[in-house]
Amino acid sequence: MTGTPRPDAPAPVLVGCSHGTDSRAGRAAIASILVDVAHARPDLDVREAFVDVQQPEVGDVVTDALTAAPAVVVPLLLSVGFHTKVDVAAAVDRPGAAASGPLGPDPRLVEILADRLAAAGIAADDAVVLAAAGSSDPAAADAVRVVADGLAARLGRDVVVGFGAGAHPRVPAAVEQARAGVVPGGRVVVASYLLAPGFFLDRVLEAGADVVTDALAPDPRLAQIVLDRYDAHAARAAATWTRDEVAATT
Q1: Is the pTM of this model over 0.85?
Q2: Which residues have a Cβ under 8 Å from the Cβ of 173 and sit 6 or more positions away?
Q3: Angle at Cα 147 formed by Cα 143 and Cα 151, nearest 5°?
Q4: Cβ density class 130-151: b for 16+ within 10 Å, e for less
Q5: In this predicted model, what pLDDT tens digit does every residue of 102-126 receive, in sequence order?
């Protein structure tokens, strides 16, 4: 590294990085998170980035941000996986940049899920399935089960977990499992542990449940999670950012 870290370095740019989607509703839902972030912290430079499907790519956004300030990437994802460990990690593998963990697990996500279930009219005899996108990374499945346990405690009933891909049981199998234990008159209600509409929510809607809740976004609590992740890593990013380093690498 050239130069020395500046104690008066500007506040890091907050880069909200999502997967990307072809769904217009999904794009709007994800964008709402960063709109809420900007409203909550108008002092911050908030930028959007993606790891797939949409542009700009996260590495390009970080490179551009570093010309004027440090950068913290907050993955707008619910669990760890390939995109956090490879794409995001590569984007911040340079002085002045840092990345937080994903948004989940977090107790506020449990509260949002409980609110979505209440809005969907969950009843005492209904069985609940938590539907997540899924990942081949075992840590992602473990994190989903932490959220499921929190939701079960919040609701005072069992919660079956189902995954869209990468892990088992898949959502249709979880719905079938839940239905086998439903009392007469009860329904299977899926709590969508998905940030936004798109491919995975479409598959959940086809999985055979009686009721499927809306995705997590938009919800202002998501912005608070994002800001907490950012604040936890801002100092680390600023500590390694220098104008000399930027000049040497651009």
Answers
A1: yes
A2: 162
A3: 165
A4: bbbbbbebeebbebbbbbbebb
A5: 999 999 999 999 999 999 999 999 9
Average pLDDT, the chain: 94
User: What is the Cα–Cα distance from 30 to 34, expressed in whole angstroms?
Assistant: 7
Whole-number CA gyration radius for the chain: 20
Q: Which residue reads 């390939």 in tokens?
A: 82
Res. 7 pLDDT band, cuts 50 70 90: low
Spatial separation of the C-alpha atoms in residues 218 and 202, rounded to whole Å:
18
The residue with tokens 């930028």 is: 47
Q: Which two tokens stand for residue 106?
A: 């977090």
> How does DSSP assign 165-210, residue by residue?
SSSSSBHHHHHHHHHHTPPTT--EEEEEE-SSSSHHHHHHHTS--S
- The values of phi and psi at residue 95, to 5°, are -60, 145
